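Allow me, if you will, to draw on your knowledge of protein folds for a short while. I have a record of one protein: its chain in single-letter code and its fold written as discrete structure tokens. Kindly check, if you would, that the fold set down in the tokens agrees with what the sequence suggests. Thank you for your consideration; the sequence and its tokens are set out here:
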Amino acid sequence: MGFSAAAITAAMAAASAAVGTASAVQQQQQRLQEQEQQKDMARYSASLAQEQAAQAEAAGRTAKQQAYEQATQKRQQAAGIIATQRALQGAGGAQVEQGSNLDATLDTAEKGEIDALAVQQKGLDADHAQRLEAWRWQEQAKAGESKANFLADAQQGAALATSATLLNGLERTGKNFYRLTSSGMRA
């Protein structure tokens, strides 16, 4: 009771095709899982970058608002100094709207405005720097989303490849099984 050489060859080919197909499908499934993890990490990274961008934008708005408030305080201080100067000059009987008294008032007003503008400019510079930082984070978030989308597309391609591998393996196994049964396994 022996099997013919053709039957043994066909049986070995069928078994080999089945094992090869199973191994290829398993490897592709593993690659799909790895891509899924990479896609999730890319989306998480993009989410963190969006949060950082939002924080940078908020910090910029805060710096700008604080600078505006500080500039307003500088202007109020200058106005207070001018009022004190004028009161002292007026109490001494001097003409506050003429000559050196007017020059002193104008100088004080000018210096106060320069100080206020300098403070305000610092705030605008800080706001600009924070907006640039936010832009960098937004670009990083876009890159993360692009990577996640690319990986999602790659997963679809890998799923199609897995299906094709499985179908090809089934076809080879079926052909080999047909050869096996058509050669008539003789016992």
Summary: Residues 5-182 form one domain.
